[in-house]
Write a structure and sequence with these properties.
Layout: H1 60-82, H2 84-95, H3 99-127, H4 129-147, H5 153-169, H6 173-183, H7 188-217, H8 219-239, H9 244-249, H10 265-269, H11 272-289, H12 295-301, H13 306-318, H14 320-334, H15 336-355, H16 363-375, H17 380-391, H18 397-426, H19 430-448
Helix pairs in contact: 1-5, 1-6, 1-7, 1-8, 2-3, 3-4, 3-5, 3-6, 3-18, 4-5, 4-8, 6-7, 6-18, 7-8, 7-13, 7-14, 7-17, 11-17, 11-18, 11-19, 12-13, 13-16, 14-15, 14-17, 15-16, 15-17, 15-19, 18-19
């Protein structure tokens, strides 16, 4: 039986088995806690603690299959949601909506995504990822199919901002991080980074593919094609998580002679670290979405060809895949804070390149903006999420992460809508890009404040 008191050693062996002995220094892995060191404590330089191990029925091969399934599922859901940046340009032309109006559905979606994250986290803690994937797939199919018939702004807000967002949230980070953080303890940063990179893959593929479909058949049939694709893949995706349900429902006991503190949501919310993570998510969401939603519209306004701009931005987004994986893996060794600070700096540099663009002949600046901004898109996610798993392990990690993610939803919604409003008032995205750089800097400061800090 594992003691609930933080740092208390396990003093009761499983019935019928000899009491576990203390592992020697040679048997402990690098960074593994020594006897007497609290397993839940964040180790030096933000390295993750080793708190639990996969149950016997989950082999290393199955763990990687679950990770691959999570990547694929997240990429599909993220791709459909990020395609809105392409549909946005079509809505501006067909409905004559203002930039602020066309941003409302996306902004509402970000807020709904954040607000619903605690519920999704609670459901995955109780039901497991397989059922959540089925629920999310059904909602996405319905939202995509119905979007083919929209004629009013409120319809877009309801279908994209609520229905599709809830569906995508059931296919995202909050659903898969709890199970992966328990299957990949020693490589938690790397596993979460691979998962997070699915967001970049979906984002990169969705823009050029959606643009090609829209130019070929129109935006309404494109929505129906996307709905049909989701209907075909949802059941095979859900089937990949049969074994994962047993992992996410109840965290496995540790085989180490140390205890795991089971953090509750209320305990976590009383700590300074919880609210610092919330602030990091808030600032990062504002900084990212003051730019990302309108980047294609910005490039078109600057005079670039629509398909060319979508291709360049899509190629830049593909860089987020190695960017996320590298930064997440590096965070396992140099610390979450240093890894995140590097990505903030690169994002600020990319946004600065966008500020320098004044016409369609500045291809180099467009490529630099796309590559630098794309390289670090989502790259902070693994470090932030792994930091939360480092600090608050236990049965309620899903709901704790869900509440922290509210900050991301609010920040993303404010950023997406705010950029459109700024354009409507000023006729330019320059102020939005400057505010993005400021928000990134504030997020960097808040994350750095988490260094070597351990919640009591």
């Amino acid at each position: 039986m594992t003691s609930e008191r933080a740092g208390a050693p396990v003093d009761e062996a499983t019935e019928g088995e000899p009491a576990p002995r203390e592992p020697t220094a040679g048997e402990r892995g690098a960074g593994e806690p020594a006897p007497g060191q609290p397993a839940f404590a964040d180790t030096t330089q933000g390295k993750p603690p080793l708190v639990d191990v996969p149950p016997p029925q989950i082999t290393k091969r199955h763990a990687w299959i679950i990770l691959g399934g999570a990547f694929t599922t997240f990429a599909v859901g993220a791709g459909f949601m990020h395609a809105y940046t392409v549909f946005l340009v079509e809505f501006l032309r067909d409905f004559a909506w203002s930039r602020a109006e066309v941003s409302v559905a996306y902004a509402v979606g970000q807020v709904v995504g954040g607000a619903s994250s605690p519920l999704v986290g609670m459901l995955v803690d109780r039901l497991g990822p397989r059922r959540l994937v089925l629920m999310g797939g059904a909602l996405l199919i319905a939202g995509l199919a119905a979007s083919a018939g929209i004629h009013a702004l409120w319809q877009s807000v309801v279908l994209y901002g609520i229905v599709m967002t809830l569906g995508a949230n059931c296919l995202g980070m909050v659903v898969f991080v709890p199970v992966l953080s328990r299957l990949f303890v020693r490589q938690r940063g790397m596993a979460i980074a691979i998962l997070q990179s699915a967001n970049g893959f979906g984002r990169a593929a969705s823009a050029p593919l959606s643009q090609l479909l829209i130019e070929g058949v129109g935006w309404r049939p494109t929505y129906l094609i996307q709905a049909a694709f989701m209907a075909v893949v949802v059941l095979p995706l859900a089937a990949l998580f049969r074994r994962a349900d047993t992992v996410s429902a109840v965290p496995p006991p540790s085989r180490l002679a140390v205890a795991v503190r089971n953090w509750t949501l209320l305990e976590a919310m009383k700590s300074r670290q919880f609210w610092l993570l919330f602030l990091v998510y808030l600032c990062t969401g504002i900084g990212s979405f003051l730019v990302s939603l309108h980047q294609l519209a910005f490039a078109v306004d600057m005079g670039f060809d629509k398909l060319y701009a979508a291709t360049v931005l899509g190629m830049g987004s593909f860089l987020s895949i190695p960017g996320i994986i590298v930064t997440g893996t590096v965070s396992d060794y140099v610390g979450r804070e240093i890894s995140a600070m590097l990505t903030y700096g690169v994002s600020i540099a990319g946004t600065a390149c966008a500020l320098l663009i004044t016409g369609p002949d500045q291809h180099l600046l467009l490529w630099l903006f796309a590559c630098l901004f794309g390289l670090t898109w989502g790259a902070r996610g693994p470090a932030i999420t792994a930091k939360a798993a480092d600090l608050f392990p236990g049965r309620q990690l899903g709901v704790i992460l869900g509440v922290i993610t509210i900050g991301s939803g609010v920040g993303s919604g404010v950023g997406a809508w705010g950029a459109g409003l700024i354009f409507d008032l000023s006729g330019s995205y320059k102020l939005a890009f400057v505010l993005s750089m400021i928000a990134y800097a504030l997020g960097c400061v808040a994350f750095w404040a988490l260094r070597d800090r351990k919640p009591r």
